Amino acid sequence: MQMPNNNPANQKLPLQGAGGALRLAILGAGESGVGAAYLAQQKGYDVFVSDFGAIADNYKKQLQDWNIRFEEGGHTEAEILSAVEVVKSPGIPDKAPIVKKLIEANIPVISEIEFAGRYTNAKMICITGSNGKTTTASLTYHILKNGGLNVGLAGNIGKSFAYQVATESFDYYVLEISSFMLDNMYKFRADIAVLLNITPDHLDRYDYKLENYAASKFRITHNQTAADHYIYCADDAETLKVMEGKTITAQQLPFSIEKTIETGAYLDKDNIVINIHQQHFQMSITELALQGKHNLYNSMASGIVAKVLELRNETMRESMGNFRNIEHRLEFVAKISGIAFINDSKATNVNSTWYALESMSSPVVLILGGVDKGNDYGMLKELVRQKVKAIVCLGKDNKRIHDAFEDDTEIIVNTGSAAEAAQIAYHLAEKGDTVLLSPACASFDLFKNYEDRGRQFKDAVKEL
Q1: Keywords on this record (predicted)?
Q2: Residues 283-332: pLDDT tens digits?
Q3: Which of 3.40.50.300, 1.10.443.10, 3.40.1190.10, 3.40.50.720 is the CATH number of 21-110?
Q4: 331-463 in CATH: which number?
């Protein structure tokens, strides 16, 4: 079903000014920045890419192949401050000196999503939340693609949105949107906005205030009209708290596993039920590919999107039953000597680790640690007492983990590499146990990113 998109982000900027093409500067040369550079070049801008750090070889080659000017290892301020607009990669905080100077100079700083949204009339399905957004975005894409829709998957996942806008012609996009992306989105509009949950995460970027982070997440509803849809978790206390002070214009579609929902999704005994404008869908939770309490929420959110787009029940049932979860999210690695190894490296906050532990049915040796983003480990203590026989720390500074759990588990050991962590966890575990890598922390102290951490762990398990 094709639905019209009157996205305000589609307003085009003038491409020509006095003296030729307008300068667009791009900060950061990762997937997001390089994709934005390519699209900007296609649209006639004079593009300059600047990365304060080193640029990965594959991205450098792309920029060279496209004849796009770039620099690495620092910022040439005169080049950047001569831009009419700057596209900032989501990982760069507003407190970075160059960003402060741009703001002082009244030069607009926007996200790649905001920029790319101007150049497509596709319908936008935008998914955010502290936990579950990658799984939900991937499942939603899977259902829509199987339903025959011409759909792309982008945002915080896969090829950048901007690059796909430049090279593809999709009617729909499923976008996984982080709070960092939302912070620099202004005119962009989500036709369908999904907010899964709000739990403390990235508080170092939000003055250590949950209300600031929550306000960022709620930007997913900005610019929505009465023709749009806002899908949210009716069981999430923080979401409901923020909604009390908000006027939401879009049609609201809640989901819950705790109460019956008239228009939206809910759990009826062992069945997911979705009711939307006479559209009815029901499926046994035992048939869902994604198991565990947290995945009921993810499946409900994806199912509501599919019903809004009027996909057939048969397509939904088949897709929700055969979906394979993403790499690094509760990914089964191997069973060795009766010990299961699970890679949940994508769990970069405490709440994600809580969900992982909650879904475990056997004794756990938990691999935890990395860059602590102001974590409150209190919510894990009860589950650690119930399920965790040992904690293996994987990080440079593990003091806060020791302090948090010294009374809750007998064994806490430190390791400095994925190989060492896997080896020690293997020796601490017994037949029937699970070794769970679910770090609750970012990975940048020992690894390039959470993918690198997950892959090193999987390689280490295969060497056991």
Answers
A1: ATP-binding, Cell cycle, Cell division, Cell shape, Cell wall biogenesis/degradation, Cytoplasm, Ligase, Nucleotide-binding, Peptidoglycan synthesis
A2: 999 999 887 788 899 999 999 999 999 999 999 999 999 998 778 888 88
A3: 3.40.50.720
A4: 3.90.190.20
